[in-house]
Design goal:
- One of its GO terms (molecular function) is ATP binding.
- ATP binds at residues 626-633.
- It holds the Pfam family MutS_I.
- Residues 700-716 form the DNA mismatch repair proteins mutS family domain.
- It comes from Geoanaerobacter pelophilus.
- With 876 residues, the chain is α/β, with parallel strands linked by helices.
- The protein has 6 domains: 9-112, DNA repair protein MutS, domain I (MutS, DNA mismatch repair protein, domain I, 3-Layer(aba) Sandwich), CATH 3.40.1170.10; 120-271, MutS, connector domain (Nucleotidyltransferase, domain 5, 2-Layer Sandwich), CATH 3.30.420.110; 303-410 and 548-575, MutS, DNA mismatch repair protein, Chain A, domain 3 (Orthogonal Bundle); 441-542, MutS, DNA mismatch repair protein, Chain A, domain 3 (Orthogonal Bundle), CATH 1.10.1420; 576-784, 3-Layer(aba) Sandwich (Rossmann fold); 796-824 and 835-876, no CATH class.
- Helices cover 41% and strands 18% of the residues.
- It contains 29 helices and 27 strands.
- Strands 13-23-24-25-21-26-27 form a 7-stranded mixed sheet, sandwiched between helices. A 6-stranded mixed sheet has the order 3-4-2-1-5-6, with helices on both faces.
- Helix 17 (411-420) runs antiparallel to helix 19.
- The longest helix is centred in the middle third of the chain and has 33 residues, at 514-546.
- The relative contact order is 0.06.
């Protein structure tokens, strides 16, 4: 292209359209290609690893960057751009180039964004792909809404503070987030920096976040008002966020909001058991802490589902455990019946195994992005439902009956697709051969014409060879000239008078005849009409099926629920889980509890079951001591996971369990920092502990592991002691608590507080070695065995020996002159601080003498005498 002083008409059209989509890469349709220009071309060529070239010059004399991809294979390229966090605006030719002089009209028909992906290749089968919106509302309330356009799920809620919102955000894990434009440059975004990192963020005009606008949109799309919150109050922030999502859909899905999208469902933070993000990660609910992998997580263990939608539903159940005893018991009863009906369950699983992802097929059909193979997959899946319904008909559990009753075999849809679409259609609509014979009389007639026309050409060639005597005569075809007769120059003398010269070549001449031209028009017209008619008929079938999206969605929901219940039954049966007793009381009693994941990983060491009793009275806080590697953290996580599984509605790894409903589970386990915010490991530990102390209730379950270890020993012991006291004494926050610590001084708390009980992980010392028994037993550990563990880890012998010397010196300075633990003074008592340097080498004899002087021998009971002897031994 020669240099131009101004843009060509085509480039002016491109720039005008691009100006409406500045934050998207514009796929500009030119013939059989999507072309990208300027900055879009530079960016896309790097992400897609395709050649960057140029198209002439711009008005300032610079080359115009250009790259392109074939339009018929655009899906993987779009997926790659979206995976990189980009938005893609698809700009199509909306006029037939053959019938237009000049520039063909083009329009953006849809915008594909990370949160609005429907292509199967771009989605993980067992995970939702959410688009979310966040909005700060009045009185400190935060609004949150999310939708999955691939399945039609849509929900919204108000959250009382930013911390509750962030916990939900991590649970939903949206791929794209909408925010009000006012947060773009303001301080209001700082609290969301962590959650929003590595996600696509779009800022929406402020006027969109208006309640009246949200109400109008929802009424227009769903013919229903926005729902209130479950407590009957009007949603505030959640309604605004839902309205923003509907607005965004209208802007990006140019044809309108998808028909399969369901009306928004409102929910509340306390409608389910609440876990913050740290607790989810510590308990490894859906991914492991170390590697972020699914294998080794609770979800990995529990997932025996055979359908993609069942896998997604199980993940939702894991993320949102129930707090309703009645609903939990309904799940128990269903699982129990499926366990006892093993043959029926096996047949059910086999039938479910052939069901495709009805939810996402429904979504693609509704969004007009479905292929003929998608419709066939829908038909084949629905065709399995009558046999499935016959299989599960004997089941009696209430939840199973309700689920089965909601399954619609959609016989009319199966019949329509069976009659209209061939059994094995091609992948691409443009390839033709999609519509079944007998579905449309005109199409059948055109196909006959096309077949006969091609046969006529072969007959004509043979006839013309006989008529002319030219054996080398050929009838051929190309797109420019159509059909023609080609004769070499050596045979031109024998051509008939009715041959009309069409083209002269170096060694041959090309001719047509009136008869050949007539059949060409007939055949070519038939093939062109076949392609048009097949596409039109396919779209008619798709639209008819799309009219049944509500029925398909309800059936998909029920099939997914059946899959999850069968999965949980298979899990319980295969691993010998028990049905828990569940109630609203405060007692958590577990007999022979096992860690579900550790047990299933088949480690070389036999798993040792343990009992647990927790309540709000005598066993409110269990102080657990013992060495590293003994199994304190495993035991604590095991208790939390058993409670969690029970409230999911699953059977649990124990011989017997009684679970008093927990409203929240908190964990403070492990060490981490947040360097981006300037927070040390200890600061993070204290912030998480502060959150637990603020939000815990008597109905909560709290797991605290090694509180205070991130600072000096005395500071750490003091903080740990105070935290334990608070969780026992502050009745509004006195949660059922497992408190693991290496500070065995904290065992003294049980002397003054009836709700604190000491337990330790049993070990045995043998020839200066320690043997981990993995058994939790009553009583506190007198040693942490840290030096023995260090020795096992391979510390040099001289370091181990020196550590023992120093430990002995330190331990001899633990007690006051009166023989009491120094840490156990009464709250509020003034402590005189000796500012002199503490010696590591205090003579042990002095401590021993002082302790003996303080003993009133005549008043000692036998038990106190035994305890005294043990204490004196530690001073020697």
């Amino acid at each position: 292209m020669t240099q131009q002083t101004e843009h060509t008409p085509m480039m002016r059209q491109y720039l005008e359209i691009k100006s409406s989509y500045p934050d998207a890469i514009l796929f500009f349709r030119l013939g059989d290609f999507y072309e990208m220009f300027l900055d879009d071309a530079v960016k896309a060529s790097k992400i897609l690893d395709i050649t960057l070239t140029s198209r002439g010059k711009s008005s300032d004399g610079r080359d115009v960057p250009l790259c392109g991809i074939p339009f018929h294979s655009a899906a993987p390229y779009i997926a790659k751009l979206v995976e990189a966090g980009e938005k893609v605006a698809i700009c199509e030719q909306v006029e037939d180039p053959k019938s237009v002089k000049g520039i063909v009209k083009r329009e953006v028909v849809k915008v594909v964004t990370p949160g609005l992906v429907v292509d199967a290749e771009s989605l993980k089968p067992n995970e939702n792909n959410y688009l979310a919106a966040i909005v700060p509302a009045k009185s400190g309330i935060w609004g949150f809404a999310c939708l999955d356009i691939s399945t039609g799920e849509f929900k919204a809620a108000d959250f009382p503070d930013i911390n509750a919102l962030i916990s939900e955000f991590y649970c939903v894990n949206p791929r794209e987030v909408l925010l009000p434009a006012s947060l773009k440059d303001g301080d209001g975004l700082s609290a969301l920096d962590g959650p929003l990192s590595e996600r696509t963020v779009s800022f929406i005009d402020e006027w969109v976040f208006e309640l009246d606008y949200a109400q109008r949109l929802h009424q227009t799309v769903f013919a229903a008002p926005l729902p209130p919150a479950p407590d009957g109050k009007e949603m505030s922030g959640g309604a605004l966020a839902a309205g923003a999502l509907l607005h965004y859909l209208r802007e990006t899905q140019i044809g309108g909001v998808a028909a399969h999208l369901r009306p928004v469902v409102s929910y509340m933070v306390n409608s389910h058991l609440v876990l913050d993000d740290m607790s989810r990660r510590n308990l490894e609910l859906t991914a492991t802490i170390q590697e972020g992998k699914r294998k080794g997580s609770l979800l990995w263990l529990m997932d025996k589902t055979v359908t993609a939608m069942g896998g997604r539903k199980l993940k939702q159940w894991v993320n949102y455990p129930l707090v309703s005893v009645d609903k939990i018991k309904e799940r128990y009863e269903s699982i129990e019946e499926l366990i006892t009906s093993q043959l029926l369950r096996d047949e059910l699983v086999a039938l479910l195994d052939g069901v495709a992802d009805l939810e996402r097929l429904n979504g693609r059909i509704s969004l007009a992005s479905a292929s003929a193979k998608d419709l066939v997959a829908l038909k084949e899946s629905l065709a399995r439902l009558p046999k499935l319904l016959s299989c599960v008909q004997p089941l009696q559990a209430l939840l199973l009956q309700d689920t089965i009753a909601a399954i619609d075999p959609l016989h009319d849809v199966v019949e329509l697709i069976s009659q209209g679409i061939v059994e094995n259609p091609p992948f691409l609509l443009r390839d033709g051969g999609i519509i079944a014979t007998g579905f449309n009389a005109e199409l059948d007639e055109l196909r006959v014409i096309s077949r006969e026309g091609k046969g006529f050409i072969a007959q004509l060639e043979a006839r013309e060879k006989g008529r002319t005597g030219i054996s080398s005569l050929k009838i051929r075809y190309n797109k420019v000239f159509g059909y023609y007769i080609e004769i070499t120059k050596a045979n031109l003398a024998g051509i008939p008078d009715d041959y009309i010269r069409k083209q002269t070549l170096v060694n041959a001449e090309r001719f047509i005849t009136p008869e050949l031209k007539e059949y060409e028009e007939k055949v070519m017209g038939a093939e062109e009409r076949i392609a048009e008619l097949e596409y039109s008929l396919f779209q008619e079938i798709r639209v008819q099926v799309a009219g049944q999206t509500g029925r398909i969605a309800r059936t998909a929901e029920s099939v997914a629920t059946l899959d999850v219940l069968a999965s949980l039954a298979s899990l319980a049966h295969g691993l010998n889980y028990c049905r828990p007793e569940i109630d609203t009381g405060d007692l958590i009693e577990i007999i022979d509890g096992r860690h579900p994941v550790v047990e299933a990983m088949h480690v070389s060491e036999r798993f040792v079951p343990n009992d647990t009793v927790l309540d709000n009275n005598e066993n409110q806080l269990l102080m657990i001591t013992g060495p590293n590697m003994a199994g304190k953290s495993t035991y604590m996580r095991q208790v939390a996971l058993i409670v969690l599984m029970a409230q999911i509605g699953s059977f649990v790894p124990a011989s017997k369990a009684r679970i008093g409903i927990a409203d929240r589970i908190f964990t403070r386990i492990g060490a981490s920092d947040n360097l981006s915010k300037g927070q040390s490991t200890f600061m993070v530990e204290m912030a998480e502990t502060a959150s637990i102390l603020q939000y815990a209730t008597p109905s909560s379950l709290v797991l605290l592991d090694e509180i205070g270890r991130g600072t000096s020993t005395f500071d750490g012991v003091s903080i740990a002691w105070a935290v334990a006291e608070f969780l026992h004494d502050a009745r509004d926050h006195a949660a059922r608590t497992l408190f693991a610590t290496h500070y065995h001084e904290l065992t003294e708390l049980s002397v003054t507080r009836k709700g604190i009980k000491n337990f330790n992980i049993a070990v045995r010392e043998w020839n200066d070695q320690i043997i981990f028994l993995r058994q939790i037993v009553p009583g506190g550990a007198s040693h942490s065995y840290g030096i023995q563990v260090a020795r096992l880890a391979g510390l040099p012998q001289e370091v181990v020996l020196r550590a023992r010397e120093i430990l002995k010196n330190l331990e001899h300075g633990e007690f006051t002159e009166g023989g009491e633990p120094r840490i156990s003074g009464k709250k509020g008592r003034r402590i005189d601080v000796d500012s002199s340097q503490l010696s590591l080498f205090t003579p042990p004899d002095d401590d021993l003498r002082n302790r003996l002087k303080s003993v009133e021998v005549a008043r000692l009971t036998p038990l106190e005498a035994l305890n005294l002897i043990d204490e004196l031994q530690r001073l020697v």
